[in-house]
Amino acid sequence: MKRREFITLIGSAASAWPLVGHAQQTSMPVIGFMSGRSPEDSSYLVTAFRRGLSEGGFVEGQNVAIEFRWARGEYDRLPALAAELVSRHVAVLVGVGGDNSAVAAKKATSTIPVVFGMGGDPVKAGLVDSLNRPGGNATGFTLLTNQLEPKRVGLMRELVPSASLFGALLNPGFLPSANQLQDIEGAARAINLKLLVAKADNDTELDAAFVSLVQQRVGAVLVTANPYFDTRRDHIIALAAQNRLPAFYQFREFATAGGLISYGPRVTDGYQQAGTYVGRILRGAKPTDLPILQPTKFELVINLKTANALGLAVPNSMQLLADEVIE
């Protein structure tokens, strides 16, 4: 072979390499991952999701791609985010970070498999026919966090028994908020507890809500289960500390970040299970054959350092029941 011919062949092959690489990349299945939360507070959840995917033999960048979309607590953005991912013909659409995201994903498509993550009842939300046989194109997990509000109300009374008025922070833009309010008010009535509800679905209202709660001299506040509040975790913890207000939360991440107390499931478990389900669907499983996953354990986490700063004495009985006590 002549030198000029050899150089020509090499040049032709080199020019083809990017095209081959592109073809391989586009042949990967693409997962559309949509969340009502924000990426800054969800990195550990994405790690758990990827861990679940890897259990099924899927690794991002090797044999699967993931496109992420984040609503950052602004729920009205979710339908457009879902529609965008559907238009890109993703292989599976993941709708996590709360009930609003799950509903938006399900409404966006009746053909693409949907794996959702929520805190409420997926049957009541119209996402599935039943927990064991979802039917249709959607399956996923529920953390049951919304249904745990009455338990958190009881914890408030137990830890701050001398308070005559308690507060609850609620997001009216969250789809299950009406049910949350009903459950909280019912639990308060059952133990003769006076309750003041403050509502917020944006940062201005959030700050104003704390001002109102402090002005009304509530003895403690329940921060209801809500992805928007998750995105503002550090700010809410700081507001509670500045105002010396005992606050109760849904996830352990609040207590480990300086919040007083949390009661709920390990959210990472749900995301890992979602990744596992996505992997099974990519290998041919149908959503209707994958039952809705639910937590089997709920954790009580108490931050004694925060309790001491607030001048609260946590009963020994509560400490003994806790899954983790942060000192």
Structure description:
By secondary structure, this protein is an alpha/beta fold. The protein is 44% helix and 17% strand. It contains 13 helices and 12 strands. The strands form 2 sheets. The protein has a 7-stranded mixed beta sheet with strand order 7-6-8-9-10-11-12, with helices on both faces.
Order of helices and strands: HEHEHEHEEHEHEHEHHEHEHEHHE
Overall helicity: 40-55%
Rough shape? elongated
Number of strands: 12
* Cα gyration radius (Å): 23 Å
**CATH topology label of the largest domain:** Rossmann fold
Domain count: the total is 2
**Assembly annotation:** single chain
Per CATH, the architecture of the largest domain is 3-Layer(aba) Sandwich
Which class best fits the helix and strand makeup? Answer: alpha/beta
What is the CATH H-level superfamily of the largest domain?
Answer: Response regulator
How large is the share of residues in beta strands?
Answer: 15-25%
Strands ordered across the widest β-sheet: 7-6-8-9-10-11-12
CATH class of the largest domain: Alpha Beta
